[in-house]
Design a protein that fits this description.
By secondary structure, this protein is mainly beta. It has two domains: about 220 residues, no CATH class; about 110 residues, no CATH class. It contains three helices and 17 strands. Strands 1, 2, 3, 7, 9, 10, 12 and 14 form an eight-stranded antiparallel β-sheet that branches. Strands 4, 5, 6, 8, 11, 13 and 15 form a seven-stranded antiparallel β-sheet that branches. A two-stranded parallel ribbon has the order 16-17. A hairpin with a 2-residue loop joins β4 and β5. The longest helix has about 35 residues. The N and C termini lie far apart (about 110 Å). The relative contact order is 0.11.
Length: about 400
C-alpha cells in the first residue's frame, strides 16, 4: 500500500447511511479520473507498467505487464452492476522483484443502492515474503471525505499466504474499518480503490505466483445468489446451490466474486447479438425447438460456451454450393435469401459447423484391426514353422544310415 493512501484512509472517519433501492445507473469520472494499472518488476530490467483510464460503462479490458520473469495480468469488468477485477501475478526471487495491480474508480450512482465488497488473494511461495491486499470505499462528497470501508492485510513471513476481504489474516499488519456492506447514496461521488501485490522482500531464494479477484457489487452478486440470472439454465459457479432449479456452473462466472453471469469473451454468453440475426446467446428453449424459434436464444449456440452464433448451418449462406442452405433454408437469418431447395441435408442441427457431407471410410476401422491381424499373422507363422520343424525331424529319423 502506498504511504499517502494509508494515511488518507486511516484519517477518515466511518459513516454508513442510506436506504436500499433496486436498479441503478453508474457513471464514471464525475469527481476525478479513474485508472486501472498493472505493474511488474524483475529488478534487473527496471519495471513495466500498463495504466488504463476507463471513462464510461460498460468497460471490459485485459491488461498485462511483463518485465523479464516478473509479470502482472489483470481483467477488468465495470458495469452498472458494479466493478470486478481478477489478477494473476508472478515475481522472481531477486530482492524487490514484484508484481501488483492498482485500481482507483471514481463513480456516482443515480439512486440509493446497497453495496457489498468481496474478494480474495492467494500466493504460492516457499519462503513467505511480503504479500499485501488493501482496499477502500470512500465517500468523496463528504467534507472531509468519509471512509465507508477499509481493509488492509500484510504478511512477510508466511509461505503460501491467503487473504480474504474483511478478515485479519496477515502476520505483519491488519486493518479493518467500516463495513463491507452498506448503502451508497444517489448523486454522491465515491472512490473504490484496491491494491494487491507480491514482493521479494526481504531477500528470498524462491519465486512466487499469486491469483485472486476483488469486486464491489451494487446490488446482489450475480455469481453468488443461487439464481440463473442470464436464462441459460445455469447458475453461479460449479458446486453452488441453485435455488431456482437451474444447474450449478455458469461458464460466465469466473468466480464467486464475479458480478455478471455473462462473459464478454464468450459469443454465446455475452449478452450481444453478434451475428445481427435478432437472436442472442444460448437459450435452452431455443435449443429444444430451433425451427419453432422458441425462447429468445440464437439457434447457432449449442451451449453457453459455444464459440460462435453463426456457424455454417445457421449463417444464411449456402457454404458448400450444393442443395439447400442451413438447417432451415436460411429462414432464421433476417435479410438472407430463402433457398427454394430448403434446408441443407447435411445440416441436421443449426449449430453444425459445416454444410459439407462427412466422408466416411474404412481407415479408422482398419486401424483398429491392425493389431488383431498382426497377431494372427504371427500365430500362423509360428504354427507353420513348428509344423516344418516336426516334418524335418521325422524325415531325419526315418532315413537309412550310411555304412
Amino acid at each position: 500500500m502506498r504511504p499517502w493512501f494509508t494515511a488518507v484512509l486511516l484519517a477518515l472517519p466511518v459513516l454508513l447511511a442510506g436506504s436500499p433501492v433496486s436498479a441503478q445507473t453508474v457513471t464514471l469520472n464525475d469527481f476525478a479520473a479513474s485508472s486501472v494499472t498493472t505493474y511488474a518488476d524483475d529488478v534487473a530490467g527496471g519495471f513495466v507498467t500498463d495504466p488504463l483510464f476507463p471513462a464510461a460503462l460498460p468497460y471490459f479490458e485485459v491488461s498485462s505487464s511483463v518485465d523479464g520473469l516478473a509479470s502482472s495480468r489483470s481483467t477488468y469488468e465495470l458495469t452498472n452492476a458494479g466493478f470486478y477485477a481478477s489478477f494473476d501475478h508472478s515475481r522472481t526471487s531477486a530482492t524487490f522483484s514484484n508484481a501488483y495491480t492498482d485500481v482507483g474508480i471514481f463513480f456516482r450512482v443515480d439512486q440509493n443502492v446497497d453495496y457489498v465488497v468481496s474478494g480474495s488473494y492467494s500466493v504460492a511461495d516457499a519462503d513467505g515474503r511480503r504479500v499485501t491486499l488493501s482496499l477502500g470505499l470512500v465517500d468523496f462528497s463528504a467534507d472531509p471525505p468519509v471512509n465507508l470501508f477499509n481493509s488492509y492485510q500484510e504478511s512477510q513471513a508466511t509461505p503460501n499466504e491467503s487473504f480474504s476481504v474483511g478478515l485479519s489474516e496477515g502476520d505483519s499488519l491488519n486493518l479493518d474499518l467500516g463495513s463491507s456492506t452498506g448503502t451508497l447514496i444517489a448523486g454522491r461521488d465515491y472512490w473504490f480503490t484496491f491494491s494487491t501485490a507480491i514482493e521479494a522482500y526481504p531477500a528470498t531464494t524462491s519465486a512466487a505466483t499469486a491469483t485472486g479477484s476483488i469486486s464491489l457489487g451494487l446490488g446482489p452478486i450475480a455469481c453468488a445468489d443461487g439464481l440463473d440470472n442470464d436464462g441459460d439454465g445455469f447458475c453461479d459457479t460449479a458446486g453452488s446451490a441453485c435455488t431456482d432449479g437451474s444447474t450449478p456452473g455458469d461458464v460466465g462466472c469466473a468466480d464467486a466474486n464475479d458480478l455478471d453471469e455473462r462473459s464478454p469473451l464468450l459469443a454465446c454468453d455475452d449478452g450481444a447479438d453478434n451475428d445481427n440475426d435478432g437472436r442472442t446467446d444460448f437459450d435452452p428453449a431455443t435449443l429444444a425447438d430451433p425451427l419453432g424459434q422458441a425462447g429468445s436464444g440464437d439457434p447457432g449456440c449449442r451451449f453457453p460456451g459455444w464459440p460462435l452464433e453463426d456457424p455454417a448451418c445457421q449463417d444464411g449462406i449456402d457454404n458448400d454450393g450444393e442443395t439447400g442452405t442451413d438447417f432451415d433454408g436460411g429462414a432464421s437469418v433476417p435479410g438472407a435469401p430463402l433457398d427454394p431447395d430448403g434446408a441443407d441435408p447435411q445440416c441436421n442441427k443449426p449449430f453444425a459447423v459445416s454444410e459439407k457431407p462427412r466422408r466416411c471410410g474404412l481407415g479408422f476401422e482398419l486401424a483398429l484391426l491392425v493389431p488383431v491381424l498382426m497377431h494372427a499373422r504371427r500365430w500362423r507363422r509360428a504354427r507353420r514353422d513348428g509344423t516344418r520343424a516336426t516334418s524335418r525331424a521325422s524325415r531325419r529319423g526315418s532315413a537309412p544310415r550310411r555304412a
